[in-house]
Automatic annotation (TrEMBL):
It comes from Alkalicoccobacillus gibsonii. This is ABC transporter permease subunit. Residues 87-379 form the ABC transmembrane type-1 domain. Keywords: Amino-acid transport, Cell membrane, Membrane, Transmembrane, Transmembrane helix, Transport. Signal peptide: none annotated. It is found in: Cell membrane.
Amino acid sequence: MAQPSTQKRPPFWRNQKYLNLIWQLLFLVFIIGTIIFLATNAMAGLNRAGLGLSFQFLTNRASFPIGETVVSFSPSDTFVRALYVGFLNTLKVSIVGIVLTTIVGVLVGISRLSSNWLLRTLSTWYIEIFRNTPVLVQIFFWYFAVMLAMPKIQDVNANYGFIISNRGFVFPWFDANSSLWIWIALLLVLLIAAFLTFKWKNKQQIEQGKKLYPSIWLVGVLLVGVTIGYLVLGEFPASLSLPEHTGTGSVGGYRFSPEFAAILFALVMYTATYIAEIVRGGILAVPKGQIEAAEALGLSSSKILRFVTFPQAIRTIIPPVTSQYLGLAKNSSLAVAVGYPDLFSVGSTTLNQTGRAIEVITIMLLAYLTISVVTSIIMNIYNKYTALVER
């Protein structure tokens, strides 16, 4: 009969499990203590200056103009309205920049692997030049050497609906009609219906082995729905607005100011170089055997890229591309260098007028954190959607 073990457990101070827990608790206590110390020190400094910690200044009159806004703003509005306008301007740069950066980065990344020598060489030089120069220098280049060097607006005309001058780019845009929100609801319903129709026809195509053209069905549902909506409502959701030259300015269309154009072009051209290399690396990570098998089946290069290479590469591309999106959003704060009224610029003006450094900086930190967190959540959802399903 086996004798029961008489070996004693080691004391907790020699047990690795308890030691790891103790070290984590000590580190947590250190972090909390540091935060409390810094907060207490900051509050003491504010009290000595007779300020205290308060956000009531946000309801005071801002008394400064903002040159470029997404929503209406006047100097008589409050500081909270000014910060909101700055936040929208930052959001505008981030969203437009992310879209354009994705397009440029994917195209350049694919071009880097092209069999065309000229296209491959130009893509390589573009990456090497723009990736290895500071983004702030590029912002100054686009602003002073490109935008401000454009012809004066008095010397240009509206050609094909575009006006390009040292006051920025003006191009055709859309003005919302009264039925805009009805159209938005209708388009959402149409998109859902078109997607379901596409899935249904695609399933039938696989089951029957016949070509049923699901993409044509998708477009057809959208066209029929839009046609019925136009016949019922009598108008489209928006009407085209063409810019007109007035001699000293322009009316109509949509205007990209020199400041916005400079920060947008710089961030797009800079960030797209990293995305291009990420795309190239993702494509090269796809096993060559699958590409050779697709070629053996007679698929063209474009179809191999669309159906074989890119769907697999996207799984390795998304995580690093998310980091580049976050970097673009945070680098938009450099817009203050050329006078674009983003969140950092408006926040700095608010800080100078109110002296509320901690409050204003906290608001800016939370705003940038919100942009980053929301971007990460969206990209993580998309990453989960494209991930392989494990058995």
